[in-house]
Amino acid sequence: MKKFFKRAIEVFLNVVRYVPIVLAYVFSGFIVVTFLAPFVLLAVWCGIQAFRMVVAAL
Known about the structure:
By secondary structure, this protein is mainly α. About 95% of the residues lie in helices and about 0% in strands. It has one helix at about 1-55.
């Protein structure tokens, strides 16, 4: 039983070691998404306008 607890603590510490890295990835991804969202929306809007112009020209 003692061995089991020792192993459980080792696993727990290994998991805890990766938590900050995962949080950093999630946080940076969130920042990138919030920063790029307006540009993506603008690009989609411009694409729709261009498509409407092409359709109107036909």
